[in-house]
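hiii, so i know i said id send this last week but things got crazy w the move. better late than never?? heres the sequnce for the chain we talked about at the cafe, plus the structure i predicted for it. fair warning i was half asleep when i ran it
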Amino acid sequence: MLSARKAVQHLQEYHPPLACRDGLRLDFNENTEGCSPRVLARLKEITADALARYPERAPVEKIVAEHLALTPEHVLLTNGVDEAIHLLCEAYLEPHDEVLIVTPTFSMFEIYAAATGARVTLVQCDSDFQFPIAKLLRSVTPATRLIAIASPNNPTGTVATREHVLQIAAAAPDAALLVDEAYFDFHGDTVLFDVKAIPNLFAARTFSKAYGLAGLRIGILAGPREQMPMVRRVSSPYSVNAVALAILPVALADSEYLSGYVAQVRSGRERLQHELQSLGVHVWPSHANFLLLRIGERHREFVVAMRTRGILVRDRSSDPGCDGCVRITVGTTEQTNRLITALREVALELKLGSEVTA
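okay and structure toks below
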């Protein structure tokens, strides 16, 4: 009788709550305004003949590499950051190898790693969600072959500094170190350029967040020149679709659109944090396009109350260390105004300030 591998049979499935998302989308950290108008114009120019051809990503990888001040040998375009994670797991993990993941974080790190049969060790952040550098370094063993961290991290918004990353890379020279920089545009600090000098460092980026291209599934994996051929061996040459490849150079070129949206998010993030604090709701400082707040026992009621006002937010109370927590994406200035109005109403309705403590 046919049966899946034991590692697959024991995997915990990830079911993102994507159904019935009518309203203001502040639940999945997407761009809440949409992509650049120039991207839409380019989409209208795509011909039937272009869609009939197999996609060729090398020319676009050259453009992306130049944009990032890297060489094409360092860059691989992927089907979102998800594929980048998957490729590193396939390239470097054998069954019974060890993987270290700082948690709470993006669920696909653990899923892809565990699917290989590797042993996954979760390194829990401290209660303030600061990056647990000392704890992580103590967790490295001779069996460690992959370390995955997100910076800024989802759902906490906290970061691992460049100094942290360099320490980890040096402490685990036999492990691939992946830094997921999906929220880089809202933070600004990066280790992307260090992949040229650090022989086991990889950095991933996505166009799903600031660029508003989540539906096209396109990302970047950057890594050492010597290692990228191994990653390419396990990658399909057609994993990035022709439409995404056609519009990516246009999206990169429209820096005015990107900077305008990011500026609104950064400003809104500060306003929202101040507002939540004034309402007595505990909120953690964030370097991403979202805030994590502790609602407490009424977190489910809070999500429902926001939905009744046409605003979708994400319950993250099941994440390790996030009991009673909700994550809210920050959008445009107008959307933040609407969000703050709703928050004031819901805080009064649920008496949040009187129940929530730090």
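btw The chain has a mean pLDDT of 95. thought thatd interest u
miss u guys!!
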